[in-house]
Design a protein that fits this description.
By secondary structure, the protein is an alpha+beta fold. It is built from eleven helices and 25 strands. It has two domains: 264 residues, Zn peptidases (Aminopeptidase, 3-Layer(aba) Sandwich), CATH 3.40.630.10; 151 residues, Alpha-Beta Plaits (2-Layer Sandwich). Helices cover 29% and strands 28% of the residues. This is Cytosol non-specific dipeptidase.
Length: 485
């Protein structure tokens, strides 16, 4: 990571190096949080943590700027832990191996954590920089954004004094966000019905090499969902008499799944037919997904025979339900052209003690859209004999087209770069909607540098875009208007 310290703006990359060096996947942010608190105390800044672990750091206004509206800079501390199957990495203990690749910074075999580490580095850089002109500042760093938005849910009224919130969790230079989707997790459980294994050849069927990505920002890009591809092939193979022992696919409900595998028995007399079927589907998938999944690979390997198999009834109900499970874009927005309104991601399938667990993340800009997909999902899996529980619901952030801070950021971008940014609503979960419950008066906007492949090991952040993000952040802080009298 020594290369990062030579990049510009140096302060941001210095802090991002520190962030990469300290493990901080969701629900394991304590070490990084402790380092941030210690650093802030060393800088003489007022710092405190609330009961859910959110960090609030205050920096006084620079001379002559005391009468400006107070600003809250916000980022989340945690990162998504995703690694390639052939990468040995413990996100709870191992640092991120970040490096420069042309105009990008990426990581070897894992997610980079630029989501939201670059935004967090920008917040800390503002606190450290003694040359920036700004009014009263508060930095809010929240916990567990990626798996439950625990920090945003737990933020209490009265902890912060700012009137304006600048969220740094967006991922496209040239776009400024004034709204986001809400979401809910669908947690589906099939009771595991097992029978003794019958005769046959045991194989492991694996599909890998897909791009994956963010289940909100990338859901409209036509990428393959490996869980759907695996189940489609297993359904096609059922007439050959296959018997399923285990199925696993994906690791996170908010990441488009990239790798999946199934352990099964194939009748010995039909093994050649099975391999031919797999080869045929490899060609089908490669043809259908040629533009988005050039590295898609299907493998069949012999494996030790399982002792138990799923019952014929469970196998049929499970595969039928997964085959029918909605996935991808459900509806595009009529009000905001080009923006996904409602989607769902079949993110996780796990065979574990006593059950087959399935998890989907449903997102929508409107509550009724989310509720419609909830009803569809519940009905489908109830018919298949599974339970379906919805948890972690969070609201969307309703756009305010008359937002003064939106106008300020838009004008600052035009002043700096000679063009107007696109004002957008993002089909992803930002914490802004939850903040409104505790701080309804906040005027909010979200912007950040270009990040590609978030929530996947292909994640990378564009170095020139980080420079522009910093320039925009500094310009906006200097242009914050005076407080109302």
């Amino acid at each position: 990571m020594a290369q990062l310290s030579s990049l510009s703006p140096q302060l941001i990359w210095h802090f991002f190096e520190q962030i990469c060096a300290i493990p901080h996947p969701s629900k394991h942010e304590a070490r990084l949080s402790a380092w941030i608190v210690q650093w802030a105390q060393g800088e003489g800044l007022a710092v405190k943590q609330d009961k859910v672990g959110n960090i609030i750091i205050k920096k006084p206004a620079t001379s002559g700027m005391e009468n400006r509206k107070a600003v809250v800079l916000q980022a989340h501390i945690d990162m998504v832990p995703q690694a390639n199957a052939d990468t040995r990495h413990d996100f709870a203990t191992d640092p991120i191996d970040a490096y420069v690749d042309g105009e990008w910074v990426t990581a070897r075999g894992t997610t980079l954590g630029a989501d939201n580490g670059i935004g967090m580095a920008g917040c800390l850089a503002v606190l450290a920089d003694k040359t920036i002109k700004h009014g009263p500042l508060e930095v809010l760093l929240t916990t567990d954004e990626e798996t439950g938005m625990t920090g945003a849910f737990g933020l209490e009224a009265g902890w912060l004094e700012g009137e304006i919130l600048l969220n740094t969790d967006s991922e496209e230079d040239g776009e400024v966000y004034m709204g986001c989707a809400g979401g809910v997790d669908a947690n589906i459980r099939f009771p595991l019905e097992l029978v003794d294994a019958s005769a046959g050849d045991a194989v492991e069927l694996t599909i890998k090499g897909l791009r994956g990505g963010h289940s909100g920002c990338d859901i409209h890009r036509g990428r393959g969902n490996v869980n759907k591809l695996l189940v489609r092939l297993l359904k096609a193979a059922e007439p050959l008499g296959i018997r399923l022992a285990e199925i696993h696919g994906g690791t996170l409900r908010n990441a488009i799944p990239r790798e999946a595998r199934a352990t099964l028995l194939v009748p010995a007399t039909r093994k050649a037919e099975f391999k031919a079927l797999v080869d045929r589907y490899a060609g089908i998938y490669q043809s259908e997904l040629a533009a988005t999944e050039p590295n898609l690979t299907l493998l069949v390997n012999d494996t030790p025979p399982p002792v138990k198999l799923m019952s014929p009834s469970l196998q049929q109900r499970l595969l039928d339900a997964l085959q029918a499970c909605p996935n991808g874009v459900m509806r595009m927005s009529d009000a905001i052209p080009g923006v996904t309104e409602t989607s769902t991601n079949l993110g996780v399938i796990k065979t574990r003690d006593g059950e087959v667990f399935v998890q989907c993340l449903i997102r929508s800009l409107i509550d009724s859209g989310r509720e419609s997909i909830e009803q569809m999902t519940r009905s489908l899996f109830n018919l298949a004999g599974a339970s379906c529980e919805f948890t972690g619901a969070y609201p969307g952030w309703a756009p305010n087209v008359d937002s003064p801070v939106m106008a300020l950021v838009r004008n600052s971008y035009q002043t700096l770069f000679g063009t107007l940014p696109n004002v957008m609503v993002i089909h992803a979960g930002l914490e802004c909607g939850l903040f409104k419950s505790a701080y309804p008066q906040w005027d909010m906007v979200s912007f950040g540098p270009t990040i590609r492949g978030a929530h996947s090991p292909d994640e990378k952040v564009h170095i020139p875009a980080v420079e522009r993000f910093w320039q925009l952040l500094v310009h906006v802080l200097e242009a914050i208007p005076v407080k109302s009298q």
